[in-house]
Write a structure and sequence with these properties.
- The termini are far apart.
- Strand 3, helix 3 and strand 4 form a beta-alpha-beta unit.
- 47% of the residues lie in helices and 15% in strands.
- By secondary structure, it is α/β, with parallel strands linked by helices.
- The chain is globular, with a radius of gyration of 20 Å.
- It has 16 helices and eleven strands.
- A seven-stranded parallel beta sheet has the order 4-3-2-1-5-6-7, with helices on both faces. A four-stranded mixed beta sheet has the order 9-8-10-11, with helices on one face.
- Bound molecules: magnesium ion.
- The site of magnesium ion has 4 residues, from helix 7.
Length: 379
């Protein structure tokens, strides 16, 4: 039996993870659940899955959760509560599906006690990849990818890591990659959120439309696979059937194919190194007929170029790009900046930032805070 702590259980990845766990009651069990503020939903989930440990990041909501929790359920409060849940002795794996930097300390807490982490929160590696991977090396704990692209790479290089020549991340291109006439100054929120393939949270859906998501994923891949940046390519593949590819030293290319459903990556991260037979949808290639591939247009989507630049600069720069982008996306969703304002804001913050190399955790968090505040202030 694999015992799982699930951080971010009410989000898109979290609810998909519950569907995976539900299917294998003899092999997967939940021991802890963490949410930001939706305490009613998490209590409901705790009841359904017989979970005894529940964390609520929002302290006021945690108080209400405590008042309404059934006897026998322990409620953990605040960011420290989420961290404590991640460090729980009785779990074998922590699935981190919290959005953004809030995932960082809980992930480190789990890794520090030697617990494996199934990681959906790419920001953790983007901002603090060096510290996170160093912690893995020190404790022997492992990171298992939940991001579909990284799950694909992970599956393709298993047993042949020493034959790897190049990682090729696929990108759906979001709703705009194949619409050259779209004006990025006037794109509406509704248009940006209309992702052609994936049903995901709002933040990552906008990131997918700007291609900044793929830039973040380049950084995630670099740390996840300890692999040089200049050997990670991006290719647009609108059908989202090939989740990424690897080129091996002899020129052979391997890819991982599946219908675009996050449960494939979640399930493999939770069941690795085994594969369980469940009810995931079958792939019907004959019905699809053709698969398209195209080079990304970095002039139309400068976010990808900015992310590569931040990755090469290193130090605190990726954390600044990530934080500036998070605020910029929120401002776009709130209607205070245009779609193209997202990458303009990110670029302004990157130009204004004095980079620290080999930063400590506190320095990374400081850079992150600085970028968030500045990104919120800029007109
Ligand atoms: Mg992805």
């Amino acid at each position: 039996m694999k015992r799982i702590v699930l951080l971010g259980s009410t989000g898109s990845i979290g609810t998909s993870a519950l569907r995976v766990v539900e299917q294998f009651p003899d092999r997967l069990s939940l021991v802890g659940l963490a949410v930001n503020s939706d305490y009613r939903a998490v209590l409901e989930q705790a009841k359904r899955f017989n979970v005894k440990h529940v964390a609520v990041a929002d302290e006021a909501a945690a108080k209400r959760c405590q008042a309404e929790a059934a006897p026998g359920i322990r409620v953990y409060s605040g960011a420290a509560g989420v961290e404590a849940l991640a460090a729980l002795d009785e779990s074998d794996i922590v699935l981190c599906a919290i959005v953004g930097m809030a995932g960082l300390r809980p992930v480190l807490a789990a890794l520090k006690r030697g617990c494996d982490v199934a990681l959906a929160t790419k920001e953790v590696l983007v901002a603090a990849g060096a510290i996170v991977t160093e912690t893995c090396r020190a404790t022997g704990s492992r990171l298992l990818p939940v991001d579909s692209e990284h799950s694909a790479v992970f599956q393709c290089i298993e047993g042949r890591r020493d034959q790897l020549k190049r990682i090729i991340l696929t990108a759906s291109g979001g709703p705009f990659a194949f619409k050259p006439a779209i004006d990025f100054e006037t794109v509406t929120v509704g248009e940006a959120l209309k992702h052609p393939r994936w049903n995901m949270g709002r933040k990552v859906t906008v990131d997918s439309a700007t291609l900044i998501n793929k830039g973040l994923e380049i950084m995630e891949a670099r740390w996840m696979f300890d692999w040089p940046l200049d050997k990670i390519d991006v290719i647009i593949h609108p059908e989202s059937i090939v989740h990424s590819l690897v080129e091996l030293v002899d020129g052979s290319v391997l890819g991982q194919f599946s219908p675009p459903d996050m449960r494939f990556a979640i399930q493999y991260a939770l069941t690795w190194p085994e594969r369980y037979e469940g009810d995931l949808p079958a792939l019907d290639l004959a019905r699809l007929g053709t698969l398209k591939f195209a080079a990304p247009d970095e002039r139309r989507f400068p976010g990808l170029t900015l992310a590569r630049e931040a990755a090469r600069t290193g130090g605190t720069m990726p954390a600044v790009l990530n934080a500036a982008n998070e605020i910029a996306v929120q401002r776009f969703l709130d209607g205070t900046i245009p779609f193209a304002g997202i990458w303009r804001l990110v670029e302004r913050l990157m130009r204004a930032h004095a980079v620290l190399q080999s930063p400590t955790l506190d320095q990374i968090i400081e850079a992150d805070n600085w970028a968030r505040i500045r990104a919120g202030e800029i007109k």
